[in-house]
Amino acid sequence: MEPATVNSPADFALRKKRIFEWIYEEILDLEFFPEDVEIRKEELDELCTRLGHPRYCPHGKEIPIGQCCREKRVSPEPLFLPLDEIPIGEEVRVVFLPLHHPTLAQKLFSVGLYSGTKVRIVMRNPATILQVEEAQIAVDDTLLSEVYVRRKESGRLGQILRKFSRNA
Predict the structure, then answer these.
(1) I want to staple 144 with a disulfide (CB 3.0 to 4.6 A). Which of 24, 79, 83, 94 is the partner?
(2) pTM of the full predicted structure?
């Protein structure tokens, strides 16, 4: 099924709500966000791009795709990326797991993969092997696109987030 796209003000409001849920819960570690956040479409697209175009909010609900997602825009300095885009050997920290797939999330939890865990891809062929803390585990490649990781801080994203965190 094709993800919902932004075609109306209501779609934009839903997209904004779910992206901000992602930001407030996964980045700022808050369980709410102010409903009255004012943001231009271009700023929301920039946030989405820097977050790596998340498909689901922290509650497992699909985020409607925007123009930036359709165009597959890439940020010169993304804050989060799907684990499948990380090169072999680079250590990253898990920030978002696919909680919208409880069975998949449980499998990741069972091997020690939680939000905040440091992880490194050891090899990709013939199977993808992850170093998770002291253990090495083989994972299905389809899992990697659902797990978002943090590489480093992004100055521009921090500026945008500070604009909205004053409301928190």
Answers:
(1) 83
(2) 0.57
